[in-house]
Write a structure and sequence with these properties.
Blueprint: H1 10-21, E1 28-32, H2 39-51, E2 56-58, E3 61-63, H3 69-75, E4 82-85, H4 101-116, H5 132-143, E5 152-156, H6 164-175, E6 181-187, H7 195-199, E7 202-205, H8 211-222, H9 226-235, H10 240-248, H11 251-265, H12 271-283, H13 288-311, H14 323-332, H15 338-353, H16 358-378
Parallel strand pairs: 1-6, 1-7, 4-5, 5-6
Antiparallel strand pairs: 2-3
Helix pairs in contact: 1-2, 2-3, 5-6, 8-9, 9-10, 11-12, 11-13, 12-16, 13-14, 13-15, 15-16
Length: about 375
């Protein structure tokens, strides 16, 4: 059975449902993947199901009834057995072990958003680390007797946000398991977790969503136009949150800016100042996600151009509204090494993901693309 509110991830759902149905629930799990792949949504739904008073079981499948008292509490994440820990900003505490009121308010707001949609951001604004005081409070809560039947589920969002002292404190919590308790960590960067933490968890990889599933979800959940949803899904690399952000930022605008950047790179001898300025204006202080989107949008546009070269102007295009400029580009650069151009852009995306300076990566890539395409025009 498909859990409500979860996009795809049927294999992961089967693993989680099977362990519930067989009553073989681990005391610690690590869900590895981006928030937009569904890690937090899966963790929250798991918590709801294991606390449901009348779960619907069909063989190895199990889902919450959605009607009992526990389900009503879990629907708003106002359940005594369910807790979420997320990063807070760096700064002094109000007291020795007290979070600032604005941080607490921010965490409550975050929980309300996640209760409404498990594909909401899991860090409040300005947050950058999970603090030791939060883990101490979790340990204290787990030591208390349960006030309601069910299973306690503590979700640590973005567990890689734990600093060294926090991670060591958390390790002690893992080493002293409590009955009827499961701790779920979500993490996009497991390389930043202590190996000893990972070794104490059942590790489940939550893969990127495929483009078809992601595009369908954007259309059905967000009421976006199919064509724009398809382009956004192609840019987002399987991440629903990223895809929604691209649509909010106007996915066509991102595409047009990427193509304009290429055009600037292909200008005459005095192109360098204009290209440098264009890269700065486009990328600026934007995060890696925006830089990756620009590169991916350009890659899709070039693939459409190559499709025209191979199959003619009647071919179906992803960027259907760009048919005329694509046909002109295809005619001008029909002899270009498009495979080499693809490799340049794919390497740029990989370099951005490795935290290399985004402006430098983009500028270098545009210079390489200039060489590839201008050589073809001269030959």
């Amino acid at each position: 059975m498909q859990w409500p509110g979860i996009i795809g991830q049927y294999a992961v759902q089967e693993i989680l449902q099977r362990c519930i149905a067989q009553n073989r629930i681990p005391q610690a799990m690590l869900l590895v993947g981006q928030d937009g792949f569904g890690t937090m949504a899966l963790a929250i739904e798991f918590a709801r199901v294991v606390n449901c008073y009348r779960p619907v079981i069909d063989g190895h499948s199990v889902t919450a009834c959605g009607e009992c008292q526990s389900c009503n509490q879990a629907r708003s994440l106002q359940h005594p057995n369910i807790s979420i820990i997320s990063a807070i900003p760096t700064g002094k505490l109000d007291g020795a072990d007290e979070l600032r009121k604005e941080w607490i308010d921010g965490l409550y707001q975050l929980a309300r958003q996640l209760a409404h949609d498990g594909y909401s951001p899991t860090r409040m604004e300005g947050a950058n680390e999970i603090r030791t005081v939060q883990i101490r409070e979790l340990t204290r809560q787990l030591s208390l007797s349960m006030t309601q039947r069910g299973r306690r589920v503590a979700i640590i969002a973005n567990a890689e946000d734990m600093n060294v002292s926090t991670a060591n404190a958390f390790l002690k919590t893992l080493e002293e398991p409590h009955a009827d308790t499961t701790i779920i960590l979500t993490c996009a960067r497991p390389d930043r977790l202590l190996a000893t933490i990972i070794s104490r968890c059942q590790v489940i990889t939550v893969p990127a969503l495929d483009e078809t599933t992601l595009s369908r979800a954007l259309t059905e959940r967000g009421n976006h136009q199919p064509e724009e949803a398809l382009i956004s899904a192609s840019l987002a690399q399987g991440d629903y949150i990223a895809a929604e952000a691209f649509l909010a930022d106007d996915v066509r605008q991102i595409r047009d800016a990427a193509v304009d950047l290429l055009r600037t790179a292909l200008r005459g001898k005095d192109f360098r100042p204009s290209l440098t300025a264009a890269v700065h204006d486009l990328i600026g202080q934007r995060d890696r996600q925006r830089s990756t989107a620009v590169a991916s949008a350009l890659l899709l546009w070039l693939r459409d151009a190559y499709s025209i070269i191979q199959a003619g102007s009647a071919v179906q295009l992803l960027n259907a509204d760009q048919r005329e400029p694509l046909e002109r580009f295809a005619s001008t650069f029909a002899r270009a090494d498009f495979d080499a151009a693809y490799r340049v852009i794919e390497r740029a995306v990989a370099d951005v993901e490795r935290f290399m300076p985004t402006q430098l990566v983009m500028l270098t890539s545009m210079m390489e693309l200039r060489t590839i395409f201008l050589q073809a025009r001269r030959s």
